[in-house]
Amino acid sequence: MRDSPSCAYLLVFMSTTKLKPTHAARRVIGAFAEDVARKLSFGPGDAIQPLIKRLGGQIIVKNPVSYTDRQPESIRVRGANDFTIYVPGMTSLERDRFTIAHELGHLLLHYPLFAKEHSGQEMIATRWVDESDKEQQRAEWEANWFAAAFLMGSQAFRKAYEAANKNVQAVAIEFGVSVAAAEVRVKTLGLA
């Protein structure tokens, strides 16, 4: 996410249970994310905040974020249509879009599994992952895969990348993501 692929993140929950990853393949999660974006009429560069509100969620910017704050980038899910996404106040709009889409990935991929096993309990997924817990790491990867495909659908991204003469910065601007996120998407789609 923020620093590098090796950076660790922890999922913390109100109960003693942990979030379960879907264990679906990256391409399956990507296809699901693109399908969700299509069904929600969410296109490249569209504002994500109104979509979150339409889905029953809210976004809260946390200012200032301290080093002791364990939830600077997180989601609290009380129900499928009742959730709060937290973003830090010190990040770029492009970074925030990816964070919001990542948290939406947790809601759509992981909350149904969590709710099935823990009916009535609140799910909280935060940025901090225990490096020794492969299940937590997997859930974070899945949310990242979802976010990338949701914000940068494969066909639209390929088309924009070619139209921009492989200018990653131009494509990043068009899709409202960071250059780093666009570069990862280029590699993931085998365009470089």
**In one word, what is the shape?**
globular
Strand content: 5-15%
Low-pLDDT segments: 1-16
Residues in helix, % = 40-55%
**Helical run tally:** 7
- Which strands sit side by side, in order, in the main sheet? 1-3-2-4
Biggest beta sheet summary: 4 strands, mixed
The radius of gyration is 16 Å
**What is the structural class?**
alpha+beta
- How many beta-strand runs? 4
Topology diagram in text:
Blueprint: H1 26-39, H2 49-54, E1 57-62, E2 74-79, E3 82-88, H3 93-117, E4 123-125, H4 134-151, H5 154-163, H6 168-175, H7 179-188
Parallel strand pairs: 1-3
Antiparallel strand pairs: 2-3, 2-4
Helix pairs in contact: 1-4, 3-4, 6-7
How would you describe this protein?
The protein is of the alpha+beta class. Helix content is 47%, strand content 11%. The protein has a 4-stranded mixed β-sheet with strand order 1-3-2-4. The two termini are 21 Å apart. The model is unreliable at 1-16 (pLDDT under 50).
What keyword list fits this structure?
11% strand, 4-stranded mixed beta sheet, 4 strands, alpha+beta, 192 residues
Short synopsis of the structure:
The protein has helices at 26-39, 49-54, 93-117, 134-151, 154-163, 168-175, 179-188, and strands at residues 57-62, 74-79, 82-88, 123-125. The chain has 192 residues and is α+β, with helices and mostly antiparallel strands. Mean pLDDT is 88; it is low at 1-16.
